[in-house]
Amino acid sequence: MSDQTSDQRKRKERGAEARIALAFGTSTLGAVGFAVVYVLGGQTQLEGAALAVAFGGLAAGLALWAAHLLPSGGYVEEHHGFSSGRHQQEKLAEQLDSSGGWRRRSLLGMLTVAVGSIAAAALFPLRSLLQPRGEDIVDALSTTPWRSGGLRLVDGHGEPVRVDDVTEDTILTVYPEGHPKAGDAPAFLVRLEPERFTTRPPGGVVADGVVAYSLLCTHAGCPVSLLVQGTSRLLCPCHQSAFDLLDAAKPVSGPAGRPLPGLPIFVDDDGYLRARGDFTAPPGPGFWSRP
Ligand code: FES
User: Fold this and answer.
1) Ligand 1 atom 1: residue of nearest CA
2) Which PROSITE patterns does this one have (predicted)?
3) Would you put residue 108 in left (φ > 0), alpha (ψ -120 to 50) or beta?
4) From the centroid of its chain, how far is CA 168?
5) Displacement of CA 95 from its chain's centroid (Å)
6) Within 13 A of 55's CA, how many CA atoms are on the CB side?
7) CB atoms within 10 A of CB 76
8) Terminal CA-to-CA distance of the chain, rounded, Å?
9) Confidence at residue 99, expressed as pLDDT on a 0 to 100 scale
10) Ligand 1 pocket: which residues have CB below 6 Å?
11) Ligand 1, atom 3: nearest CA belongs to which residue?
12) Which of 284, 276, 290, 225 is nearest to 260 (CA)?
């Protein structure tokens, strides 16, 4: 093989090595990015993108390695004895000492770091499966921030809700003050004439003609946000379960099997609505819905 051909081959190999190093480095950054996003509270799209970068970089690096650095084709080697000649031994020592061997070892190191980073990042989601120390998992799943009692009901802008803000023809979504992002805590308020109740709402769920129930459908957790005018029934848009607010929010059609849990409320001295405690039953769907 001429020197010129050999130089071209070496230049190609160095270019491939640089691309492989870039791919493994990108993979490592993706794995680290996934771990950081997860630790900071998680964001599904960002986590998915980081994992795609991590695995994509790893796959690209391995593919480039296989395509450009591994031997290809069939080879026939003449065998002239079992011991290497002096010339071959010197050649091998020269190759091992050359920068090419050092670069390959660096690539192996980067591959190890990339795979190790992905494995380490996978441990973070596993940690979420562990039960928090000292916390009963059933208790954690079946209670909400309302349990502390006395919390004011605030609207979507964080403004405390007065009993006079609640009307008959619209439902008002509310959250526990200080916990606007608690996924299991949203509730709704609507004003009803007490004499129309066929079943009195569970204890404390009505105050000054205003009732409060969990916003989460007991079938699969969608927000039950459609008030059917004139019927005092609330419709879940996902699978059309209907709940009768005059009959303690029991399901009257659709797949939901439990009434909406009520939220015990009272009006404080300043006219603001506050919760007395947690919902009358765990909100949304869950293992407690199963027969
Ligand atoms: S989630 Fe409401 S009916 Fe299915």
Assistant:
1) 220
2) RIESKE (PS51296)
3) alpha
4) 37
5) 50
6) 8
7) 5
8) 78
9) 55
10) 217, 219-220, 222, 236, 238-239, 241, 254-256
11) 239
12) 284
The rounded Å distance from CA 283 to ligand 1 centre is 13
Q: Indicate the domain borders of the chain.
A: 3-69+97-127, 140-289
Q: How far apart are CA 190 and CA 167, in angstroms?
A: 6
182: its two tokens: 């608690």
What pLDDT band is residue 180 in, cutting at 50, 70 and 90?
confident
Q: Report which protein residue has its CA nearest ligand 1's atom 4.
A: 239
The chain-wide mean pLDDT, for the chain, equals 86
| Ligand 1 pocket mutation, candidates 234, 241, 260, 289, criterion most atoms within 8 A of CB | 241
> Model confidence over 96-109: pLDDT tens digits?
666 566 777 888 88
Alpha carbons 286 and 84: distance in angstroms, whole number: 72
Residue 268 pLDDT exceeds 90: yes
Dist. CA 265–CA 210, nearest whole Å: 9
Structure tokens at 83: 């011991």
pTM of the model: 0.61
| CA separation for the pair 270, 163 (Å, rounded) | 10
CATH says 140-289 is which class? mainly beta
Residue 255 one-letter amino acid:
P
